[in-house]
Amino acid sequence: MPELSDIRNFCIIAHIDHGKSTLADRLLQLTGAVSDREFRDQLLDDMDLERERGITIKSHPVVMRYRAADGRTYWLNLIDTPGHVDFSYEVTRSMAACEGALLLVDAAQGVEAQTVANAHLAMNRGLEIIPVINKIDLPNADVPGVVRQIEEILALDPEGALRISAKTGEGTAAVLEAVVARVPPPVTGPGRETRALVFDSIYDMFRGVVSYVRIVDGELATGDRVLLMGRETRTDLKEVGIFCPKPTPVDRLGPGQVGYLVGTMRSPSEMLIGDTITRAGRPAAAPLAGFREVRPMVFCGLYPVNAAEYDKFRQGIEKLALNDSSFTYHPENSAALGFGFRCGFLGLLHMEVVQERLRREFELDIIGTHPGVVYRVVLRSGTALNVDNPVDMPDRTKIERIEEPMIRAFIICRNEDIGELMRMVMDRRGEVLKTDSLDVKRVMMTCSLPLNEVLTDFHDNLKSLSRGYASMDYEHAGYRAADIVKLDILLNAEVVDAFSTLVEQSRAQYRGRQICGALKDAIPPHMFPIPVQAAVHGKVIARETIRAFRKDVTAKLYGGDVTRKRKLLEKQKAGKKRMKQFGTVNVPQEAFVSVLKSGAK
């Protein structure tokens, strides 16, 4: 077990694609934590989804032993973190286990929106920040310009900024020396009761719940009986270990160390992220601070395509929620889709990743409804309700007002793109609060926008209009009264709840035409014509008609009087009229997918 003064806990934070995972790869090679035979790019990104998309989704801890220039051997606990705004909660949890952070900045792109957000998160946690300028080998690298941005935008000392290329390995040895010299060792008091912070957890099919912990005070060993202070659950430790980078069992974990614990818990609901673990026989007087509760902002319904897989689907969602505490769910059912769950996410990318993980890790075929946000509905009685499902919207005669969630967005772009981006923000019912010049080439716009307007295609349009140069970060900014209506979709005069959505009044007709057009193309013809209608407050505002499939009832005729042919056609017409009166519409799963995609155009 290492001495407290020999431990350094740090994380790598940066904007998307600034080289966090590549730098982690180089540090693992330099310290010999992984052999050349076992090495591969993006080593800590062990999910197939992370490797395919080239992004980090989950934080990954690893222990490295490093012999420094002063001759001492240090234990470096590194946590690689995601860069996308949807996964900023992962970054916050990782910081709680650290005393320092490497803030990575791309030498060509400079300080971006998420760089600023992550720097502020680290400052608020009181971490020692080491600026690192990466990709200095690029032909368009502007190191002096980035140094100025670090000083002017982030208010960090530019003298301590390191210049490296994680790809080629240039200057990466200096990063390890800087971590040893500048990141403070963990601090603990003598005689304190054992306390460990749970900053992440996963579900293992064979071992049950595996908790990722940072030991703050005391120590934990195999065989100890421990207490989870939040859930008041007791369990015996079957295994404790560290990440090298694969999970490696050890006898005990001491103060300042980062590792994992395996108990006797089999149910994912028994573990709470941010909980404090202490000894059951001698519990701590008070738990650790933990994390602020994260609230999902985007909701959609998830259903199994095959209703017989509902139990398997429920178990998969429970296990995934253990590994991702920002993901929430509760049961719901739909007349069109059957039994499923109403799920909450931090953003659209988070929603896509969760759906893809359910398909891959649990071999489920699922379908999702159109994403929406949480509206605050104030009734005439004075009661306020949070509504994330259009089905739960109260009768409009009882509603005093509806408020929608707002965000404060920070958009960094080139000077020449500011006009088009301002126009896009105003088209989305937003306003530009102020603009700040970052340097001679770039500005940062601070905007106020409804969250619902940035859900689907805002980020794509942002990149398209700026030719890939703009970046955005946002924070939630309360609620604002808005003219929100419930848009119902009717098939053959029957409301289909799965297609209902909440939209702003001025966008209702456009969105109604979108959905009707998508359904007209996706639903196959029946034996009778099917009206597809969009309605607000019972008034139809858009309509399409799916043509009837016509069977050739006159095919057997080979001549004779024309009245024979007319008689058969009249008989078919009367039969179709009865069928239309009693017939139900068969909606294929592709129709739900097409409606979901129609909102992203």
SSE layout and pairings?
Elements: E1 7-14, H1 20-31, H2 48-53, E2 60-67, E3 73-80, H3 88-95, E4 100-106, H4 113-124, E5 128-134, H5 143-152, E6 162-163, H6 172-182, E7 195-204, E8 208-217, E9 220-221, E10 225-228, E11 233-236, E12 239-243, E13 247-250, E14 252-253, E15 258-262, E16 276-279, E17 298-304, H7 310-323, E18 328-334, E19 338-345, H8 348-361, E20 366-368, E21 372-373, E22 375-379, E23 384-387, E24 399-414, H9 418-427, E25 431-437, E26 442-450, H10 458-465, E27 471-482, E28 484-491, E29 494-495, E30 501-504, H11 508-522, E31 530-536, E32 539-546, H12 562-582, H13 589-598
Parallel strand pairs: 1-3, 1-4, 4-5, 5-6
Antiparallel strand pairs: 2-3, 7-8, 7-16, 8-15, 9-14, 10-11, 10-16, 12-13, 12-15, 17-19, 17-20, 17-21, 18-19, 22-23, 22-24, 24-26, 24-27, 25-26, 28-29, 28-30, 28-31, 31-32
Helix pairs in contact: 1-6, 7-8, 11-13
Task: Give a quick summary of the entry.
The protein is α+β, with helices and mostly antiparallel strands and 601 residues long. The protein has 13 helices and 32 strands.
